[in-house]
């Protein structure tokens, strides 16, 4: 396996941390795009060279930057994700920011997907230079009803996230919309269907109303692509296809901690193992570590039971959390895990979460972490 | 006409001021994008609306109208309003 690079996207720029073979020493490279809001920084695992950054600033519109030399030089997309111009007399949508980037299937080199806020799905076939709408979703009248407007969704806008490509089938896609549910396409995005059976929503609302479903993060198991895990606004879930029924596996979490959070990470070779980072979803939803005591929780039996993993993490008065894109893992023989906090620290574990140490601190609020395996 | 470029867009123009040729505000941004690719979308969205924190002044008067007529000797200022932390 090539050298690891930890790709860090923050509220104020991007950083790249280059790891040694033991994943103990990390050489920092950055900042890149200091002052830009970087929502996602992703290395193409197919060529291990193409690096895309989803960027905007507080005032400038959104764009995508590309690099093929690990950030030594960057070029801007010729056509960043943008909705079609609306007919005269109607109100058109405008991309506020690209939130999520997903490289396409290995059989489709150069294909990428982007999820935006407000909800939109875009596809590039030339490595991120030009982006086109996935019209089967963006222009579907039923989906337009389910997609959030300016007053819906998360505090900085409704987000289309968790664009997952089935490793066995380039045309089999999943997406999450906050709020707006989980959806599946089997024809590369031409048509879509909701996948929300079994998911709970906020009490008092009708779960039959797709727009009330709020998946926070979806993950597909490389070891068994028929299994997906989900961290939802209302619990942790698992689904085993072809079943269409999600099962709330977060019920097995300690009651004092609950099963609310943003991210979920799956083991690269064991579909029964996954990790979550719970947050406080009580009262006014502080969305901080419960009790100020951050911890990862791991299941090794598909969610039947969960074990707390907090060795090395602060024991008290740590009121940060980890956003949905800010927890990731590598694919080493003993997988490593990485957390990026809203307070600008990176914590890592080289033993599947058993022990944690701080990799970096004093960064801006971290929006996303990704591992890249370099060529 | 002279066009004053804000700091946040100098990465495109490489200069604080450019001399452009256009008959309307919309044509001006087309001209800018032709010479400095990508700059228009950072200022004007896909619905031809100025982005929330971007502003354009012609001879000191603010305009949001891409159809506004420009004359060769007009002074155009593009500004950004920083917001948040």
Give your account of this protein's structure.
The model of chain A has no long low-confidence stretch (mean pLDDT 95). In chain A, 3% of the residues lie in helices and 39% in strands. In chain A, the strands form seven sheets. In chain A, strands 3-2-1-28 form a four-stranded antiparallel sheet, with no helix packed on it. Chain A has a four-stranded antiparallel sheet with strand order 4-5-6-7, with no helix packed on it. Chain A has a four-stranded antiparallel sheet with strand order 8-9-10-11. Chain A has helices spanning 135-138, 141-146; strands at 4-10, 13-19, 26-32, 37-43, 51-56, 63-67, 75-76, 97-103, 112-117, 120-124, 132-133, 159-165, 173-178, 181-185, 193-194, 215-221, 224-232, 235-240, 247-248, 261-266, 274-278, 296-299, 307-309, 327-329, 337-340, 346-349, 357-360, 366-373. Chain A is globular. Chain A has 375 residues and is an all-beta fold. Chain A has two helices and 28 strands. Chain B has three helices and five strands. The radius of gyration of chain B is 12 Å and the shape is globular. Chain B has a five-stranded mixed sheet with strand order 2-1-5-3-4, with no helix packed on it. The model of chain B has no long low-confidence stretch (mean pLDDT 94). Chain B has helices at residues 10-13, 25-35, 39-43, and strands spanning 2-4, 17-19, 54-58, 61-62, 75-80. By secondary structure, chain B is an alpha+beta fold. Classes of the chains: A mainly beta (375), B alpha+beta (85). At the A-B interface, loops of A face helix 3 of B.
Molecular shape of chain B: globular
* Protein chains sharing the most extensive interface: A-B, 20 and 22 residues
Q: Strand count, sense and closure of the main sheet of chain B?
A: 5 strands, mixed
Strand order of the largest sheet of chain B: 2-1-5-3-4
Q: Kindly state the percentage of residues in helix of chain A.
A: under 10%
Give the quaternary arrangement of the chains.
heterodimer
User: Percent of residues of chain B in helical segments?
Assistant: 10-25%
Number of helices of chain A: 2
Query: What would the average pLDDT of chain A be, to the nearest integer?
Result: 95
Instruction: Identify the overall geometry of chain A.
Output: globular
In round numbers, the mean pLDDT of chain B is 94
């Amino acid at each position: 396996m090539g050298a690891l690079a930890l790709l860090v996207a923050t509220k104020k720029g991007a950083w790249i941390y280059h790891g040694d073979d033991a994943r103990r020493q990390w050489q920092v490279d950055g900042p890149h795009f200091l002052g830009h809001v970087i929502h996602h920084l992703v290395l193409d695992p197919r060529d291990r060279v193409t690096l895309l950054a989803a960027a905007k600033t507080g005032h400038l519109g959104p764009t995508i930057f590309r690099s093929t030399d690990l950030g030594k030089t960057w070029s801007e997309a010729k056509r960043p994700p943008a909705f079609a111009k609306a007919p005269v007399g109607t109100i058109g949508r405008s991309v506020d920011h690209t939130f999520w980037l997903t490289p396409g299937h290995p059989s489709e080199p150069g294909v990428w997907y982007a999820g935006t806020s407000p909800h939109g799905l875009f596809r590039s076939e030339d490595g991120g230079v030009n982006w086109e709408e996935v019209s089967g979703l963006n222009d579907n009248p039923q989906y337009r009803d389910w997609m959030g407007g300016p007053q819906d969704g998360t505090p900085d806008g409704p987000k289309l996230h968790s664009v997952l490509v089935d490793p066995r089938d380039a045309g089999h896609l999943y997406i999450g919309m906050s709020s707006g549910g989980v959806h599946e396409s089997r024809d590369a995005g031409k048509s879509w269907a909701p996948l929300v059976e079994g998911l709970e929503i906020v009490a008092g609302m009708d779960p039959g109303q797709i727009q009330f479903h709020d998946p926070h993060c979806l993950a597909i198991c490389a070891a068994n692509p028929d299994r997906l895990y989900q961290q939802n606004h209302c619990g942790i879930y698992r689904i085993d296809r072809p079943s269409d029924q999600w099962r709330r596996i977060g019920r097995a979490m300690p009651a004092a901690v609950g099963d609310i959070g943003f991210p979920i990470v799956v083991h690269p070779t064991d579909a029964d193992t996954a990790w979550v980072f719970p947050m406080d979803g009580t009262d006014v939803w502080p969305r901080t570590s419960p009790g100020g005591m951050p911890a990862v929780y791991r299941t090794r039996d598909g969610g039947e039971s969960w074990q707390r993993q907090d060795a090395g993490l602060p024991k008290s008065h740590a009121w940060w959390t980890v956003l949905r894109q800010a927890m990731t893992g590598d694919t080493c023989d003993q997988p490593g895990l990485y957390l990026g906090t809203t307070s600008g620290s990176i914590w890592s574990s080289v033993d599947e979460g058993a022990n944690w140490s701080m990799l970096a601190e004093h960064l801006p609020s971290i929006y996303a972490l990704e591992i890249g395996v370099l060529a | 006409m002279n066009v004053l470029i804000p700091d946040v867009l100098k990465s495109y123009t490489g200069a604080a001021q450019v001399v452009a040729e256009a008959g309307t505000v919309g044509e001006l941004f087309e001209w800018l994008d032709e010479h400095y690719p990508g700059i228009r979308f950072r200022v004007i969205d896909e619905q031809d609306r100025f982005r929330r924190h971007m502003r354009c002044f012609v001879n000191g008067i603010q305009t949001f109208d891409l159809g506004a007529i420009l004359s060769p000797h007009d002074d155009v200022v593009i500004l950004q309003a920083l917001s948040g932390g």
